[in-house]
Amino acid sequence: MKNRAAKIITVLIAILLIISSVFLYLKYIENKKIAEIKSQFNTKLTDYERDKNLALSYLEIITINSQDKYEEVKEKLYPVLSTDLQNQLFGAKNNTSYQSNEIKYTVVDVKGTFDENNERKEKLFKIQYYTVEKYSTKDYLALIKVVDGLIVSVKTFVI
Amino acid sequence: MNKKIVLFLLLIAIIILSGCNNKKIQQLEKEKEENNKLVRDVTATYILNKFEADKIADDIKDYLLNIENEDLNFPWYFQNSYLEYNIIVYKSHLLYGIEKAVEDELINTNNNNLTKQDIKQAVIDKVLKSIEFEYFFNPDNGDLEQMIIFTLPDGSQGLFISLWQNSNLIYTNVFMKEVF
Q1: Nearest CB partner across the interface for A26, out of B21, B28, B35
Q2: ipTM more than 0.85?
Q3: Which of A64, A114, B3, B173 could be stapled to B137 by a disulfide with Cβ–Cβ 3.0 to 4.6 Å?
Q4: B103-120 per-position pLDDT tens digit
Q5: Pairs from B25-33 (Cβ < 8 Å, separation ≥ 24)
Q6: Do B177 and A45 touch (CB under 8 A)?
Q7: How many CB pairs under 8 A join A and B?
Q8: Tens-digit pLDDT profile for residues A79-98
Q9: What is the distance in angstroms between the Cα of A68 and the nearest Cα belonging to chain B?
């Protein structure tokens, strides 16, 4: 009786071990195949979207109208700015007195450079937007350059 | 008999596990194909629009770079279109900017050996070298914008924009960024 029970347990353990091994092996093969397929994804459009969103995030600068807002925007933007822009926008000790009016902006159009041959590291985004502050609106065009996940230069035109 | 049952159960387990794996991979393969097809289509639209925009780019460059020549000898696709009007406006900004830069340089220069013509040529060379072409694309709708930028010695910049849809020019505009 005892021997029979021991045999059954041994067989069950052996089955479990075999199933686990097969499962782990198949999982390994699956992960390898998934990694291979993921490497074949053309990321041109997802990279474009990522950099576009980064460029758009720069416009938060416009909304700074108080010290609290300044700190909030600085926390968000500082890590994604080049060193030059960090110093230019947030470098000097901030002694600015702010108007209390809320400043909003609306993006009208966004387009970016599209490198069909994947030769250019940088992307330039052309963003048309307008700001609304109390009773006035102004139209702008910004050219924002993104390189390796950092905003490196911004030129703004009043239109 | 027990051995046969055990082996049979093992076989069933392997088949079930393999089936689960295959579904996930097939789904990912499908997503990959759809994504890559979208990128190919978008790239093709971009190349098509850029090809048409590039045909005009050379003509525009010649018109702008030929500073002294006011004649507008553009091909047929320029005629009776706002492209012609706006490119003339753009060039007038360019010429005005150059003249202003020359006047400023004449006032500020200490070198009496330089003639006005020398200074003008130097300014023209500098400004014409600054002319850049950029192409901006919206992957969502296939619109392509060709942008020409020149930079004047005082930092002012002029933008000329032409918008292309389905290989057709549908809009142009001019913007100036003054530096005060």
Answers
A1: B21
A2: no
A3: A114
A4: 888 888 776 777 888 888
A5: B25/A30, B25/A33, B25/A34, B25/A37, B28/A34, B28/A37, B28/A38, B29/A37, B32/A37, B32/A38, B32/A40, B32/A41
A6: no
A7: 91
A8: 999 999 999 888 866 656 66
A9: 31
